[in-house]
């Protein structure tokens, strides 16, 4: 056995359930109860109005077992997909853990998605049930999938059943389904098996420095992969106490929360850090944040100013971490105790081998040596796009990177046209498709336009049909149409009109050229900008 294989085998052994297999919910919750740690607080939920609800590991094990029983009572079978469309409510944690406990595949949806992304993902997932609120479902729901409302008889429903024990799953049984975006075509549903928890648990300790009993706060929305993996499963598996805030972003609220809850490990995003920076260092210094031990960031390039601002405001730099939906867990990080070099992602985490492929000095792709426990099992019903991710025993990330002589990696960019806005991936194709539904639109090309806070914002270039002319009214109408259909997370924030859009010879819109023009870059050198098209 190689060193890496031995490392993962040992990590897997520590999470193996009594029946010899692995279940993510058992590893995250029930295991601690079995080990006599049931009275430890698993979740401290803070409501919009400041109300606090705490749940111990024993209570979370009980409630998730009850939700698993509710699913079974409704005839939901193992391997069927149970989705959530929920704000950050205690019921979200119960539903996620309960679905996985029942052997179902858990698929979170972002509450800021509009009706079209919700319908599309539920239909691609062939979801058997969606757990949501009456208000969200009224605005975004579809009649095609049965819905269970957490604000209509939820407590009674759970009280009426006996908790179900964990389904006796193996590491390879599917557990999580996360939608991610490609350059072309529909969103891709990346499937992960229960065994992913092995790498998620390991990296919670090695990359984030989490220890049992630590108070931990992950600010990522639970509708995205970070919110599920490092907002629920990984930190619970590590025995942490999760802080969950229902409220909206507000610097003073955030600092007060960290002070009151005595947060030890804080995992957030560059967009949030840049927004905090705007509110000033003085504000941060007004609070007693001495409980903080480790600050980490993920999802988009962490600028050097943000790293050093962490030092000024909190006495600790932000440590970058890198991963993707497909990798299922953190792959690169500057771990606790390691000096932070601004502009670098850090090193591979234990058990992971990475490299950069391509001409020295040229464009180089970050690749990861197969296998590792949290690698995705494939995109749902899309063998072709799955195959395109692999070559010669390596996983191709689609990110461009370099490696310093000391082994630290640096993020350079992406090989494709996918947009990253506030840390969320947006597929231009999904946005263009909705814009094309508008009666005035002949063609649409969507790009990420650099933005000082969000990293990128979604910008649409539109060629109009004959009989339509550019105007401010039309711009407003297009943006309103997109927001209605796509929701604020995906809708373009800016629209520009063009007489015609540039195309490749095969007729695809050349988004890279639109971007080059937007940035005022020379248009000649497009060979290296050509879309990877994954
Ligand atoms: C893409 C993956 C964030 C993990 C979960 C979301 C970009 C990720 C960093 C970072 C610069 C980063 C990459 C990657 N990304 N971390 N530290 N610095 N860029 O996963 O939605 O699949 O996004 O996020 O481009 O490929 P995702």
The gist of it:
This protein is α/β, with parallel strands linked by helices and 534 residues long. The protein is 33% helix and 24% strand.
What does this structure look like?
The protein folds into two domains: 3-409, Rossmann fold, CATH 3.40.50.12780; 418-533, GMP Synthetase, Chain A, domain 3. The two termini are 34 Å apart. Helices cover 33% and strands 24% of the residues. It is an alpha/beta fold. The strands form six sheets. The chain has a nine-stranded mixed sheet with strand order 2-1-10-9-11-12-13-14-15. The chain binds 5'-O-[(S)-butoxy(hydroxy)phosphoryl]adenosine (WT7). 5'-O-[(S)-butoxy(hydroxy)phosphoryl]adenosine is lined by residues 180, 225-226, 298-302, 320-325, 345, 397, 399, 411, 414, 420, 425.
């Amino acid at each position: 056995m190689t060193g890496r294989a031995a490392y993962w085998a040992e990590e897997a052994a520590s999470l193996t359930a009594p029946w010899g297999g692995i279940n993510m919910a058992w590893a995250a919750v029930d295991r601690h109860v079995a080990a006599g740690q049931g009275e430890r607080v698993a979740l401290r939920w803070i409501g919009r109005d400041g109300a606090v609800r705490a749940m111990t590991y024993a209570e979370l094990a009980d409630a998730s077992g009850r939700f698993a029983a509710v699913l079974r009572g409704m005839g939901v079978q193992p391997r069927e997909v149970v989705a959530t469309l929920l704000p950050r409510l205690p019921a979200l944690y119960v539903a996620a853990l309960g679905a996985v406990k029942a052997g179902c595949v858990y698929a979170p949806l972002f509450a800021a998605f509009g009706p079209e992304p919700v319908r599309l993902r539920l239909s691609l997932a062939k979801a058997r049930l969606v757990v949501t609120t009456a208000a969200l479902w009224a605005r975004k729901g579809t009649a095609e999938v049965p819905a269970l409302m957490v604000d209509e008889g939820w407590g009674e429903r759970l009280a009426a059943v006996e908790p179900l024990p964990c389904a006796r799953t193996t590491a390879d049984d599917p557990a999580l389904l996360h939608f991610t975006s490609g350059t072309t075509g529909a969103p891709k549903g990346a499937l992960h098996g229960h065994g992913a928890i092995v790498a998620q648990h390991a990296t919670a300790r090695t990359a984030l420095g989490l220890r049992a009993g630590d108070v931990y706060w992950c600010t990522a929305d639970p509708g995205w992969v970070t919110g599920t993996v490092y907002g629920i499963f990984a930190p619970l598996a590590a025995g942490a106490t999760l802080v969950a805030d229902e409220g909206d972003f507000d610097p003073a609220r955030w600092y007060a929360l960290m002070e009151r809850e005595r947060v030890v490990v804080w995992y957030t995003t560059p967009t949030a850090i840049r927004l905090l920076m705007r509110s000033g260092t003085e504000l941060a210094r007004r609070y007693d944040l001495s409980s903080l031990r480790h600050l980490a960031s993920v999802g988009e390039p962490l600028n050097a100013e943000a790293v050093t601002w962490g030092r000024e405001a909190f006495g600790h730099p932000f440590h970058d971490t890198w991963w993707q939906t497909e990798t299922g867990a953190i792959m690169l990080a500057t771990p606790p105790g390691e000096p932070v070099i601004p502009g670098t992602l850090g090193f591979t985490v234990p058990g992971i081998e990475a490299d950069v492929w391509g001409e020295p000095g040229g464009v180089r792709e970050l690749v990861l040596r197969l296998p590792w426990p949290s690698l995705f099992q494939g995109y749902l019903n899309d063998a072709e796009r799955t195959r395109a991710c692999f070559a010669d025993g390596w996983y191709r990330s689609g990110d461009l990177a370099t490696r310093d002589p000391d082994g630290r990696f640096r993020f350079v960019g992406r090989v494709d046209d996918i947009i990253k806005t506030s840390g969320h991936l947006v597929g231009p194709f999904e946005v263009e498709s909705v814009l094309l539904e508008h009666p005035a639109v002949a063609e649409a090309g969507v790009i990420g336009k650099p933005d000082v806070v969000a990293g990128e914002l979604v910008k649409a270039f539109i060629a109009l049909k004959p009989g339509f002319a550019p105007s401010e009214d039309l711009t407003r109408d297009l943006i309103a149409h997109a927001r209605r259909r796509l929701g604020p997370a995906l809708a373009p924030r800016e629209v520009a009109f063009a007489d015609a859009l540039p195309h490749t010879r095969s007729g695809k819109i050349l988004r890279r050229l639109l971007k080059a023009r937007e940035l005022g870059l020379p248009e000649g050198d497009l060979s290296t900008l050509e879309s990877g098209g994954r």
